[in-house]
Predict the structure.
Amino acid sequence: MADDKDVLRDVWFGRIPTSFTLNQDEVTEREAEPYYLLLPRVSYLTLVTDKVKKHFLKVMRAEDVEEMWFEYEGTPLKWHYPIGVLFDLHASNTVLPWSITVHFKNFPDSDLLHCPSSSVVEAHFMSSIKEADALKHKSQVVNDMQKKDHKQLWMGLQNDKFDQFWAMNRKLMEYPTEEGGFRYIPFRIYQTMSDRPFIQRLFRPVSPEGNVHTLGDLMKEMDPAALPNDGEPKRYQVVIHGIEPLLETPLQWLSEHLSHPDNFLHICVIPTPTD
Amino acid sequence: MEPQGGSSATLTAIQHHGRRRGRKCCSTALRRSQQSEQVSCELSAGVFLSQYPRILHSPVRHKMTSTTSHMSSCVLDEQNFYRCCCLLLQQSEQLNDGWSWEAVQDSEEGYLRKTTLRSVVINSSTVWDLEGSSSESEPSDQQAQESEQSVPVALDEPDTMEDDTDDDDDEDDGVCAVSKGNSKVLQYEYHIMYSCSYSTPVLYFRASTLQGRSLSLEEVWSSVHPNFRLRLQNSPLNTISLQEHPLLGQPFFMLHPCRTEEFMRPVLLAAQEQHRPVNYVLSWLSVVGPVVGLDVTLRYSQLHPAASISSTESD
């Protein structure tokens, strides 16, 4: 369907205007100007910020530069979460551009994973894809792919090549017609108000009786507090890629069209803004 | 000999390793295989994997998968995971092995936890490239150069070579001197959790010095015994990486679970054929634990290894 293909493109090409400002405690030789960048929602911070690093290195001495890390309003940003998820979770109802602070010292290794090279990002990305396929197809599709096919998925993401990526990714979105959907839906639900980093459990797209499960069914099962009680005003928003899909949307459709390139549906539950 | 226990293949593999390395750990493995069939299954599982890589990719595998997946005992579901943990916990208490259960706020969900102190000897050997199979050789070369010259090597029973006159640290307890360098006592914390994606247990761990400095991935890699390192290095997803702990959100090292079902299958099938109950979590732990310095004492096998499904028998 033409409409559905458009959704795939809209998801892929989503961007967040961001300003990067150097942490004022960093030692510089002269004043550092902020750096502005349009960040891809579906990529990862450490993959797309080489230019940011270069920009700030111009005003710093090499000995003052350690591993770069990012923070928003005091919260270290986890590079291994897709950029769009970080934004929706921490800054979605704030004024654009998203203001991120850049650090080159005091890496918080009790909060953040180290990311010394892009191969670490690749390993993490491929690991997510494999885990998603374990849920969808008992790993059969991803294991039948050759190493060059895996590489194509990664290169498609790294170089922002939609067609190259989807030529391979479509295989991961197939399912036997008689099943009506994937075996289980790969998803993670994030909320800042919780101690645990995310909720991830087994959930089928179709019930044993043949009923199609919706986003609302998923939330009711996994995080019922996120849904409003009858008559009460909505306290939380259920956000995917910066939008609130209708709770009646079939989960299988969401998984096929609104997943990130890592094949997971990343769902953010955030407090409804009170203007 | 029947391949089920793989005992002759096991001994051959051990002898081969023994000849190549001459390490004490191989003689330990020999002792183990003679004493406990359950533990020898662990070694045969490893041998099975290396001998039959092609089976994993042939069409026959799909057939195998569909048959074995119907054998529910080859797949660990979440309820059985908790039962196995319960059992392990009871046995651990009897043996004073230090495992505890950490529950997630009023739910049955949680994980097994254990902390240990390990004496690790540091010697100045070359740092090896931990991203050997990655396509980008440049960053990993840089990494290798930037890593410390001295690298911790953990030995369960360290070889006694020359006297170590450099060692002024008084932290260690009874670790025999090795050629050069210092010995350090490190604190390891192990968590066993359930992965619903892979239907297997997963091992997470972190390590720090007694002063509280966390170990880097390079240091952890260096403390993996060379015999295990080679196998892990060849399959990058079957490896140790830094991950976010799914319940605590903090960085932990994790042993990737995606191959667990493959090496557990022969163990479970063999046990089924012999009508022997198996604690999935305990058997799995005896395979993966030693890779990252977690010993699983043989005394577990001397207790009644009650099945996860049948009634638990507490002494």
